[in-house]
Amino acid sequence: MKPTTNVKQLLKSKAEGQPVTLMGWVRTNRGNKHVRFLAVNDGSCQASIQVVAETQGIDAELLKRATTGSCVGIQGVLVPSQGQGQAVEIKAQELRVLGDADPEEYPLQKKGHSMEFLREIAHLRPRTNTFGAIFRIRHALSFAIHKYFNDNGFCYVHTPIITGSDAEGAGAMFRVSTLDAAKPPMRPDGHVDFSQDFFGKETNLTVSGQLEAELAAMGLGLVYTFGPTFRAENSNTPRHLAEFWMIEPEMAFYDIHDNMDLAEDFLKYLVLYALENCADDLEFLGQMYDKELLDRLHFVVENPFRRITYTEAVEILLASGQKFEYPVAWGNDLQAEHERYLVEKHFQCPVTVTGYPKGIKAFYMKLNEDGRTVRAMDVLFPKIGEIIGGSQREEDLETLRGRVAEMGIPEKDMWWYLDTRRWGTCPHSGFGLGFERLVMFITGMANIRDVIPFPRTPKNAEF
Ligand code: 4AD
Ligand code: MG
Questions:
Q1: Which of 229, 189, 183 is nearest to 206 (CA)?
Q2: Based on the domain organization, do 143 and 86 belong to the same domain?
Q3: Is ligand 1 within 6 A of the CB of residue 429?
Q4: Residue 88 belongs to domain spanning
Q5: CA 387 – ligand 1 centroid, Å
Q6: Are 159 and 75 part of one and the same domain?
Q7: What is the total count of domains within the chain?
Q8: Over the stretch 214-255, which tens digit does the pLDDT of each residue have?
């Protein structure tokens, strides 16, 4: 027996008594000793389909085994529903229990488990309405990202996950090594001898694909990466993961304004895509968790983002009269509390901040004429804070070498990056969108651990 259809298709079909074979997991099994009503979900959509099984035709013992969480196969016919709440239902002619789920032990018995509890059973989360919705939306957004770039003439480049460079400086890194951790080979100076390691040098998991994406943009023009990135910071917040997915477009001939325009258009496209293609799942999440979710999504699509400079942001924060945990002063980085004040209280809309002090941003960002600020841009979103970080890149070889030296980065590690400025350099820009932060915003989830199937955070790598 193999399914001939799925619940999503069936709910859209005209019920004309046609034969169907369906498989899925039982959500509920109600009724009496003559007739049982099974709600069966197969993950194809938010809704379950009602299966009507009369104990005259179907073995009562089998029906008893079709408890919440069990997996069943049904052969029957699709008929107009007799009851309320659904247009169609399956009248079962044959039932098979493919996998029992002992009601004494199966953990997902009742509705309304806490998100914390569900995280502990992340291997079973996909069977819940909530995580079905979240993971379908995550899928739809992944698809939309590729569609957006493909339709706009971008080339998808696969940047390495194992890297020998630590120049990006975006965060602490996870080492990749095959050396014996208990007894690594040592150099006479007392340091580990990485020349004996797999790659003959020290290597790590990448924090970003940007530097390699820049190389590709210098030949292909418009490129993007979409892959996993890794940061070994001990940030135990609802917005940080040690392993997260990032989308990084890199565009030759774009300045910071073109970059801001693209970021805004891209984000609006993705939110609109979700509204148009994931309506049932968004409706469900809005009802269950956040009554303002749909309004917030529509607002982002329909309104321009505000654009301000870092210096203006600091002035607004200083004049706000708010007590912040982290002090506000020109030169200090903006903290999540500052970002959220700007977005949620002051402007009440998404905000793009540019012109950050060079001291708090990466070496590759293009220096402004003032010599103090760089053409950085962060896009700040309600409930999220920073969702995108990016910049125009420094394309001038001598200025870039100066910045590399200032930041204490050995030039010999960066020869390939500097080469792009040596030959055929051009103005270019790019940004990184944190995929899980986007999924958080669109699903309304408050914790980033709930928008990725198997989150990796400090002291947590189960499953
Ligand atoms: O601002 P970040 O560190 O920028 C970069 O990595 C640049 N190389 C991007 C570029 O210009 N190509 O990170 C970009 C985005 C952040 O705005 C945030 O949304 C997300 O990645 N992000 C994280 N998401 C989850 N967990 C973490 N630990 C994250 N760190 C950054
Ligand atoms: Mg950033």
A1: 229
A2: no
A3: no
A4: 7-99
A5: 8
A6: no
A7: 2
A8: 999 999 999 999 999 999 988 899 999 999 999 999 999 999
